[in-house]
Amino acid sequence: MSKIAVVYWSGTGNTEAMAEAVAEGARGKGAEAVLIPAASFDAGQMDEFDAIAFGCPSMGVEQLEESEFEPMFTACASGLQGRRIALFGSYGWGDGEWMRSWETRCADDGALLVCDSVICNEAPDDEALDACSALGAALA
Q1: How far apart are CA 65 and CA 10, in angstroms?
Q2: pLDDT bucket at 62, cuts 50 / 70 / 90
Q3: Contact yes or no for 19/10 (Cβ under 8 A)
Q4: Taxonomically, which superkingdom (predicted)?
Q5: CB of 24 within 8 A of CB of 138?
């Protein structure tokens, strides 16, 4: 059984709902999926998991949340080489530039993105939640 971390930051609950759908998708494929708020995760935990889904909404000028998520993710960057990951998050404005930049950053760090990232505008609808579930299944 694979063990999947679903590491996320959520200010309004939108990305948290997405994280829950990711975890359910992984569990549906027989994986053990653990939901972990970004403030409770650090790079030292990465080796405990077979794959990691990272979730963060777009903040400010299409960037990752700066006080908790960004420092945690930056600390994890050196451990992304060859690691199976997936990305997801919500946004309220823009066109998803933050996700494209994040994907490039992960690829530059050598991460293996196992599927297309999932983004949704504001609260996730059924289509976005289904896509998150599929993302979790792909990690499993």
Answers
A1: 9
A2: confident
A3: yes
A4: Bacteria
A5: no
Residue 51 host element (H or E): strand 51-55
pTM of the predicted protein model: 0.96
Residue 140, token pair as written in the block: 């499993």
Show the CA angle centred on residue 107, arms to residues 38 and 8, nearest 5°: 15
CA distance 78 to 120: 28
Q: Is the dihedral of CA 82, 38, 136, 122 positive or negative?
A: negative
Burial of 129: CB neighbours in 10 Å, binned 0-12, 13-18, 19+: buried
Closest CA to 26 of 34, 36, 16: 34
Tokens 């027989």, located at residue? 30
Q: Tokens 């600390």 sit at which residue?
A: 75
Residue type (1 letter), 26: A
* Largest Cα–Cα separation, the chain: 39
